User: Which sequence fits this backbone?
């Protein structure tokens, strides 16, 4: 019998465990993770394979550290981006949680440098953005880089390994709910884990499982926005006037044709584009490193659509669009912006004749207009032209668009302000997989908050 069972060793689950061990060092805690330990995680594509082998458990997404383990490790130090914690508690409380979580990252080896703290510089860039009808969000960022991010996560793993039970390579299959109260969970090998409290933090990789399991237990959920878009890659000097000052710029645009919100996400100066595998579906992402650099910068452009009844399948919607790209390209599809505007597919010859060398060499040249719905594609094109006003060269004919980038958030779980599920006591849902957060820092903060609530009971 455990005091607390945690599903998912991403930042939300890790920080929940860290806080419980600080407040209740004698408690018995078990952490369940479907992937491997941090030192055993690997991606064959990154190690030289010409094409993604579609591993059953994607090494970039599953394992200790979650989907963010191999990311560029950007910790956004503001409540205004990266999640919805402000819907559950006051700004002061969220800011305190972020500050506390940031200090924990520093304790375990994070770098001291924070980008984007010069408010006067931000205001100058904000003015330029507003003239292009773009909203620039103030978001100081602590950048770890993939290498340092792995070191920090390894330090956390080693610390907790001596204090709690960590089970790798095993998945949660079902929750045990009796008399509207959670009693633990059943693993995919049939093993039963009994616990007084259960924290569900499966990340985006486990969002589909969370949605189905919570639906079976009649735990209320509401639709989240669906984020679908592309990964943009261009010469690093194009965005250097911005990235040299802010490192990552959070820009929001409302497209004139449809009024949809389009936002930049996960900007990687001098980084590389990477492929990920969500349950057999190839999607695209971007990384940047502390030591290794490329000549390109990449970032996502995501179009947010919020659907109403009877729509209840945000994950399936994103999977369907990504599957279309996989069907045409056998994986990731890439197209030059100029070819998209000219209504023709990109070819290997046209890509080779560009001034830009793709960092994701396994992407197949093709036509994104056959995949992305007209509404989202129109909004993406309009956003690229708006960005071109503050970063001339963004709308170059040589700019590369990779598809599909989609963020798999489950429908957001109906939660109390304590992040406890409505209707089932002692069950907490946190992090990106629960639709509560959208990034490393708020996911970490949600874990701290849930742990404090549990320990205070």
Assistant:
């Amino acid at each position: 019998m455990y005091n607390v069972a945690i599903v998912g060793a991403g930042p939300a689950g890790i920080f929940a465990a860290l806080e419980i061990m600080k407040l209740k060092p004698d408690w018995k805690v078990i952490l369940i993770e479907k992937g491997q330990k941090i030192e055993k995680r690997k991606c064959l594509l990154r190690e030289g394979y010409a094409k993604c082998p579609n591993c059953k458990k994607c090494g970039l997404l599953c394992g200790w550290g979650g989907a963010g383990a191999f990311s560029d490790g950007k910790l956004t130090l503001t409540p205004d981006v990266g999640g919805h914690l402000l819907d559950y508690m006051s700004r002061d409380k969220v800011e305190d949680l972020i500050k506390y979580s940031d200090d924990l990252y520093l304790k375990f080896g994070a770098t001291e440098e924070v980008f984007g703290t010069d408010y006067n510089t931000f205001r100058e860039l904000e003015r330029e953005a507003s003239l292009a009808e773009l909203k620039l969000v103030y978001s100081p960022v602590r950048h770890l880089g993939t290498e340092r991010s792995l070191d920090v996560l390894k330090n956390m793993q080693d610390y907790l390994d001596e204090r709690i039970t960590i089970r790798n390579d095993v998945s949660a299959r079902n929750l045990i709910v009796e008399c509207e109260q959670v009693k633990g969970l059943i693993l995919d090998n049939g093993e039963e884990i009994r616990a007084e409290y259960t924290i569900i933090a499966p990340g985006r990789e486990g969002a589909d499982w969370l949605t189905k399991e919570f639906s079976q237990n009649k735990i209320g959920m509401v639709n989240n926005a669906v984020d679908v878009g592309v990964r943009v890659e261009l010469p690093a000097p194009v965005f250097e006037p911005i990235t040299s000052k802010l490192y990552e710029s959070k820009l929001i645009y409302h497209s004139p044709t449809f009024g949809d919100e389009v936002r930049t996400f996960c900007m990687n100066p001098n980084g590389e584009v990477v492929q990920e595998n969500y349950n057999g579906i190839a999607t695209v992402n971007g990384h940047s490193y502390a030591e290794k650099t490329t000549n390109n910068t990449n970032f996502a452009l995501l179009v947010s659509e919020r659907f109403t009844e009877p729509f209840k399948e945000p994950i399936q919607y994103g999977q369907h669009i990504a599957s279309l790209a996989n069907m045409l390209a056998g994986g990731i599809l890439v197209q030059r912006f100029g070819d998209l505007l000219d209504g023709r597919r990109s070819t290997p010859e046209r890509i080779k004749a560009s001034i830009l060398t793709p960092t994701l060499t396994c992407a197949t040249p093709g036509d994104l207009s056959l995949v992305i719905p007209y509404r989202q594609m129109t909004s993406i094109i309009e956003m690229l032209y708006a960005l071109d006003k503050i970063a001339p060269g963004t709308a170059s004919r040589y700019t590369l668009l990779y598809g599909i980038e989609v963020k798999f958030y489950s429908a957001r779980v109906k939660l109390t302000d304590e992040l406890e599920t409505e209707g089932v006591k002692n069950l907490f849902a946190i992090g990106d997989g629960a639709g509560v957060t959208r990034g490393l820092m708020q996911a970490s903060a949600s874990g701290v908050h849930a742990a404090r609530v549990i320990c205070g009971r």
